[in-house]
Specification:
423 residues, mainly alpha, two-stranded antiparallel sheet, two-stranded antiparallel ribbon, 4 strands, globular
Length: 423
């Protein structure tokens, strides 16, 4: 029944994924609303998401009660504000390098960022499709450049005699090196890694823009694998090449990239070193890698502001949110509340590593604890109601036991990381 919001699929898909944990409660609500009579007495069918969108705060309120709802709302609000704050820092630090001379180029860059992203935060997701798709291609191109330019610089030096080795990054001729493993930094890495990969609270909204709902599992799985692959290569190669000189925003290491062309020039005092007569292609690569993260966070900021604004509106209006969610004036007010404070905060705390570390702390709860809790509670409720509890999106580890392990892991991680951060 295409009008019911519920589709049944009998394909055998195997075990659990994060997507299954995030969507199962929504499917539970959809199914319960449509009535068990849609399936008769057969509880072996698998549920498939269709057009109805039920956001995660609503799911927490339904399955975890008011306390669970408030805890989730606090975590996701802190995370989104932190993410928006970090976007401000990325843009400010990148654009400050090419901004006009002023007493505080960073503050000038943040002001410019605010002028651009605040109006965009009032647009709906469907109105940003072209921008998001275009910038996705730019992200992949930038990542490829950040992986291969250090490798090419290393290959050129190894192919020449050490005495005639030409630098590609400022005066650095060889990789600085880095230890293969250093567990002393684990507490700093883990929240930042979660911060970089988290999409959990946005899954219900993102799924609405996908026409073939049966492919959601494959889409999210491929995206996760691709991101993990690229993050691993960037982290490994750039840490190995730049070593202790790596910047908080690694793209800033390309500020003095010249690709082995040009020559170095020093001022009269010999204090300031500048590369001159650099090839046009090297200048373009350097400029692109420096400035694209700033362009990228211009497109990402409105997505987070939209998601946070919608969540804040649900928190404030509760069960009556359906009465106001089509009111453009009210939705714009909540998106302004979501978008403006991080821009102000970005003027005061500018270090990306600090912002990402504390933001990732709340992200640990969103990534590990709440999906596991929702999986456990929604499965228990479906079993109690005597209706299907398996979905089309299940992957490896789709069980209450696996969800319990993930939940305990998340709680232990939160406590451990918090203790190390405050010390």
């Amino acid at each position: 029944d295409d009008s019911s919001g519920l589709t049944i699929d009998t394909k055998d898909e195997g075990e659990i994924s994060l997507l299954d944990a995030a969507l199962r409660p929504a499917l539970t609500v959809d199914y319960a609303n449509e009535g068990a009579s849609l399936l008769g007495d057969d509880c072996s069918e698998k549920l498939l998401l269709k057009e109805r969108c039920i956001e995660v705060p609503d799911l927490c309120k339904l399955f975890l009660g008011n306390l669970g709802f408030k805890c989730y709302a606090l975590c996701v609000s802190l995370y989104c504000y932190g993410a928006l704050w970090s976007f401000t820092a990325v843009f400010g630090n990148a654009v400050a390098l090419v901004a006009p001379n002023s007493s505080d180029p960073y503050a000038f860059s943040v002001l410019l960022y605010a002028i651009i992203v605040i109006p965009m935060s009032f647009l709906e997701l469907s109105e940003q499709k072209i921008v998001q798709v275009t910038l996705s291609a730019g992200r992949i191109f930038m990542i490829v450049l950040m992986i291969f330019t250090p490798l090419i610089a290393t290959i050129f030096c190894h192919s020449n005699a050490q005495s005639s080795c030409t630098s590609h990054f400022s005066q650095q001729t060889m990789p600085n090196g880095a230890p293969l493993v250093n567990f002393s930094g684990f507490h700093r890495m883990m929240p930042i890694m979660v911060y970089a990969a988290i999409v959990h609270f946005s899954i219900p909204s993102l799924t609405q823009e996908v026409s073939q709902k049966s492919q959601l599992g494959n889409i999210f799985a491929m995206t996760s694998v691709l991101c993990a692959f690229l993050y691993t290569y960037i982290g490994t190669i750039d840490a190995w090449y730049f070593g202790g000189d790596v910047q908080q925003s690694v793209n800033l290491n390309w500020a003095d990239y010249h690709g082995g062309t040009g020559e170095i020039f020093s001022d009269a005092d010999g204090q300031k070193l500048t590369w001159i007569h650099v090839a046009w292609w090297a200048r373009m690569l350097s400029f692109f890698i420096l400035i694209f993260p700033a362009i990228n966070v211009v497109s990402t900021f409105p997505l987070y502001a939209l998601s946070l604004g919608n969540d804040l509106m649900r928190i404030y209006y509760g069960d009556n949110v359906c009465l106001v969610e089509k009111n453009r004036r009210i939705t714009s007010l909540f998106r302004a509340i979501a978008a403006i404070p991080p821009l102000i905060g970005g003027l005061f705390v500018r270090d990306l590593g600090t912002i990402a570390g504390y933001t990732g702390l709340s992200g640990l709860a969103i990534a590990f604890c709440f999906p596991a809790l929702l999986y456990i509670r929604s499965t228990q409720k479906l079993k109690y109601m005597g209706i299907p509890y398996t979905t089309h999106y299940e992957r490896l580890g789709s069980s209450i036991f696996a969800a319990g392990v993930v939940l305990i892991f998340g709680l232990v991680l939160i406590i451990g990381v918090f203790i190390t951060l405050i010390h």
